[in-house]
Amino acid sequence: MESLNLPPFAHKVKDLNGKPHIYDLIRRKYIMLTPEEWVRQHFIHLLIDHYQYPKSLFAVETGLFYNKLAKRSDIMVLGTDGKPHLLVECKSPDVKISQGTFAQIARYNFTLRPLYLALTNGLTHYCFKIKDGQISYLDDFPVFVR
Q: Which fold has domain 34-138?
């Protein structure tokens, strides 16, 4: 897999049915190793190892509805109050973060209403805080506060 602009982690990869799979510590199972999954697993470990997010507050690839269409969020981290805290949209490293990517996470925001939004393709990362309908760009990801 491609080297990313994210810290490395001790990943477990194994072959299942002739295809590589990576262990997801949130879902507690092996998941097909695609470029997007490679980014997602790096980002999950970044949030846990460097920003102190408890793994018990993560939801990965959970369903949501927007305009009666079923969608899936890549990473959702809940706050200790059980409400959405951080929503992360992951893309493959070969997908540029574009206006369309921003629009996608903005649509999810309308449904989930997290305090923070993040976008990453493993090479480029963006994080935003949403407060009183105003979106502000952050230079770093928020550290989890208990």
A: tt1808, chain A (3.90.1570)
